[in-house]
Specification:
Blueprint (H helix, E strand, L loop, with lengths): L14 H24 L1 H9 L6 H30 L2 H18 L8 H23 L2 H4 L5 H32 L4 H26 L14 H14 L5 H31 L4 H29 L1 H21 L3 H29 L5 H29 L4 H19 L4 H11 L1
Helix pairs in contact: 1-7, 1-8, 1-10, 1-11, 2-3, 3-5, 3-9, 3-14, 4-5, 4-8, 5-14, 7-8, 7-11, 7-13, 10-13, 10-14, 10-15, 11-12, 11-13, 12-13, 12-15, 13-14, 14-15
């Protein structure tokens, strides 16, 4: 029997506030679904870059640059947010930046390489900042024994936001193609649709979500210095947070593989199996349905069997997905791989966020989630750029590139064996 939602929440937390928190996952999922996964990535390679051999590498390098910026900035922003109790204020600014930059993508047409790169870098940086800041609210809302299921609520609800944005975009694409329009005409409109859904849904988060942190007594002129000192202190105490460190390394490994799927699945489908734009969007729509089911159901399963075994199951699922994708010669087999990817995507990302919440001291949530974001963004550099380099070195052989991606999931399984959940949770509670 499933526990009542109120039994999963900390004292004083209302269900409408958790809804507001989950609504941000709903808001920003359209960005990853339409911009990074289903539409703009393939548009960038095929239209903006004109189908050039360097197109895939240019796309992965743009994502790599944005993720490098996040790696450098987010841990300090997280520490600053803890000191100033400013998670919500920074979340508003990050959201506005992503919405604006996504709108600018609508101006990128054939040959507008530098405009497209600048807009994708800015939008992805702001998206990642927002993703880290909203995650830092999780331990304030959920009880430790319910971290997995509450995280799963957010991830699963988020995929419905991705489906809404993708569905609206798909409807417009079908209409536009019926009018004889080209991708250069209808893709920019899908960027505006994505920005609008993001902005409107995020308003609910800003209205319902509370900032529970209390600003620390630090002089205004020394906040930045204090944030750096907090990070240095955490580095020196890394042995104390051994399991959090292993989790970060594990996240770098398996999230590198997931980053490839998010950033390049549409490119693989179109370049290897000849999918058309409409077919690719339908494929990603199916992935979102499977991801929503996987994230919601797996959250409860994760709390029941344990976080580490649950994450291990999803990583083996990713290995299966890789094998299917490599062997796929028909659309049907690739559709099957997509379903497996969807089931694993929401559950593995939700499991990682829940573990980070368990290992984060209560008074340093944004800082630790900033470090978690550092690991996730490092993976988003390593994975897609590795894929891009392999395709470049093999003359565009995407099958070899996706096979190389499978090694990231196997490496994640190896590192996960070093994570001790009970020890990591005890260290976080002792620090707080």
């Amino acid at each position: 029997m499933l526990p009542h939602p109120k039994q999963s929440l900390n004292f004083g937390v209302k269900r409408r506030e958790v809804f507001g928190w989950a609504l941000y996952d709903f808001a920003n999922s359209g960005y990853t679904t339409v911009v990074l996964t289903a539409v703009f990535n393939a548009y960038f390679v095929g239209v903006v870059a004109g189908g050039a051999d360097w197109g895939t590498l240019a796309w992965t390098l743009a994502l790599g640059l944005s993720n490098a910026i996040v790696m450098v900035t987010m841990p300090v922003l997280g520490a600053w947010a803890d000191i100033r109790a400013a998670k919500k204020r920074l979340l508003v600014l990050a959201t506005a930046g992503c919405v604006l930059a996504t709108s600018l993508l609508a101006l990128a047409g054939p040959g507008d390489l530098w405009l497209a790169v600048a807009a994708i870098v800015l939008s992805n940086v702001c998206y990642a900042w927002g993703e880290s800041l909203i995650a830092a609210f999780l331990p304030e809302l959920a009880r430790r024994e319910a971290m997995g299921r509450v995280s799963g609520w957010g991830w699963s609800f988020g995929y419905f936001g991705g489906m809404l944005t993708l569905g609206l975009s798909l409807a417009y694409v079908i209409w536009a193609q019926g009018q004889g329009q080209s991708a250069a005409q209808f893709v920019p409109v899908t960027m505006l649709i994505t920005a609008a859904v993001y902005a409107l849904a995020a308003l609910g988060t800003f209205l319902l979500l509370r900032e529970r942190a209390v600003a620390q007594d630090v002089p205004a002129g020394t906040v930045a210095r204090s944030a750096w000192l907090r990070l240095v202190q955490t580095w020196h105490e890394s042995r104390r947070y051994e399991d959090f460190s292993w989790l970060l390394l594990c996240s770098v490994c398996y999230m590198a593989g997931i980053a490839v799927v998010i950033a390049l699945a549409a490119v693989y489908a179109e370049q290897v199996l000849g999918f058309q734009q409409q077919q690719t969007m339908m494929l990603v729509f199916l992935v979102n349905i499977a991801s929503a089911v996987g994230a919601f159901a797996f959250g409860y399963f994760q709390d029941r069997i344990g976080h580490r075994p649950a994450l291990a199951i999803t990583l083996w699922g990713w290995v299966l997905m890789t094998v299917l994708a490599v062997l796929a010669t028909t659309h049907a087999v690739f559709w099957a791989a997509a379903v497996v990817a969807g089931l694993c995507m929401g559950s593995s990302q939700s499991a990682g966020r829940a573990l980070a919440g368990l290992f984060a001291p209560a008074d340093r949530l944004a800082e630790f989630f900033g470090l978690w974001t550092f690991a996730v963004r490092l993976s988003a550099i390593v994975g897609p750029i590795t894929y891009g380099l392999v395709t470049f070195a093999t003359g565009g052989n995407h099958r070899i590139a996706i096979l190389a991606t499978g090694t990231f999931f196997l490496a994640g399984l190896v590192v996960l064996r070093r994570v001790d959940v009970a020890r990591g949770t005890a260290a976080a509670q002792a620090a707080a």
